[in-house]
Amino acid sequence: DLFYRQMPKVELHAHLNGSVSFSTIEKLMARKPHLNIEHNMTAILSGQKRTLDECFQVFKVIHQLIDTEEDILMVAKDVIREFAEDGVKYLELRTTPREDKNTGMTKRSYVQTVIEAIRQCKNEGLDIEVRLLVSVDRRHGVEVAMKTVKLAEDFMRSTDGFVVGLDLSGDPTVGHGGDLLPALQKAKNCGLKLSLHLSEVPSQVDESELLLNIPPDRIGHGTFLHPEVGGAQSLVDKVMKNNTPLGKNVLSNQRSTIKVYEYIPPHKHQSDFGPLVFCSIQTDDRGVFCTELSKEYQLAASTFSLSREAMWSLSQKAIDFTFAPDSLKQQLHQKWFELHPSLF
Ligand code: 5GP
Question: What's the CA angle centered on 315, arms 314 and 317, to 5 degrees?
């Protein structure tokens, strides 16, 4: 539907290496034919369902394909360009710095290269603002997390405001988020905005309790926070008390069997959590799930019988929950205001 493609959109939850398109994967495969990687190893096709564990296997394969600065630059530029082509005006990318002894890529050069891609896209005049969250992979423990925070802090201070925050992600069934508290707290104290994946799987009440105490600036998923789905009222109360915006990925995870509870109508969350909750529509891993943000909007509209005006409001509301400075938020609101008449 052209309407949803043309509608200006905000993408707040996109993992860089989960957002790699089919055509970029083809280019990477051509660079590394010896790996013998096939498309069904890097994407979950429509109609297929995978367990969370299987989803995380897919990332391992993608990471094998992307192991040089040259790869990262191409991937990040392609991803940004493709989001722009889909009508995304503000993109918050998140990615986990990786190093590779064989190619000489370091975590620092990894982040530097993603920032270079953002810069190049800006210089090419693409109509999209991009900001970066540096991801901590929970599987790697607190020592690595501390170093990642330091890296994020350095880049936050030395680049033109491109790095705005820290993301906590990685396989939620491995490790305990509580162990990472010192690193997350340090990030918060130095001014990095915190977006934490939490209660993505059941039985993480204790962990979520600890993480919510920080408190984060935004929650990713929060699928199992609610007592009705095995969470706890105390968690809901904490979210309410701290005014923590809860970014539901309303549809993007429908292909991962574990996250079906996220697949519930926005108004239900609204009534449970009140106006704090914003139900933004986000892709999470657009490449892996073979989707586009415009498709997710269209799917949400038809699934929940929402009007185009309602979808427009949803996309505009997301501006307020970005980690962008106020001046940029104002510019984005202005853009929405100017584009509205051309679409209605
Ligand atoms: P990257 O950080 O390499 O750019 O993107 C892929 C990584 O993002 C994965 O290895 C994983 O750590 C994280 N990730 C992507 N999708 C999800 C998700 O749905 N849940 C969690 N917890 N982590 C994810």
Answer: 65
Range in 40-54, 82-96, 260-274, 300-314 the model is least confident about: 260-274
* Ligand 1 pocket list (CB less than 6 A): 15-18, 59, 95-96, 135, 137, 169-170, 172, 197, 200, 284-285
Distance, in Å, from the CA atom of 234 to the CA atom of 242, rounded to the nearest integer, reads 12
The interface pTM score, or ipTM, of the predicted complex is: 0.99
Query: In sequence order, what are the beta bridge partners of 163?
Result: 132
| Domain 2-331 CATH (choose: 1.10.540.10, 3.30.1640.10, 3.20.20.140, 3.40.190.10) | 3.20.20.140
Cα 184 to middle of ligand 1, angstroms = 17
Give yes or no: 200 in active site.
yes
The model's pLDDT over 56-112, given as tens digits with 9 standing for 90+, comes to 999 999 999 999 999 999 999 999 999 999 999 999 999 999 999 999 999 999 999
CA of 137 to the centre of ligand 1 (A): 8
Neighbours of 261 (CB within 10 A): 18
